[in-house]
Task: structure prediction
Amino acid sequence: MIKKFNIGIVRGYHFAVVGTQGMNPIMAKNVSHLFTLLEHDRIDVAVTILIGGKLEIATNFTDKGIHVIGKSLHSAPLFHYVNKTIFN
Result:
C-alpha cells in the first residue's frame, strides 16, 4: 500500500533503507529536511525513527499537521558498546 506514495527517508538511516526496499525513496539530509519535504508536499510519507520524528515535530513543526500513523516498518536489536577501560 505504501508503495504508491512518494516516500522520503534520511540518507544513511539503514533501517529506513530496509523498510522502504523496492520503493525508490527520496533522500533527505536530516530529519528536519525530511519534514520540510513533507510540509511542502515534495513527499507523501516520511520514514524515520519514532522518537526522532516526535522530537523534530515538537521542536520545529508544531501545528503543521505532521503526525505518525501505522505500525513500525522495521525493528532491530540495539546494543550498548563500551570501552573495556570503564570497568577497571
Observations:
- The longest strand covers residues 7-10.
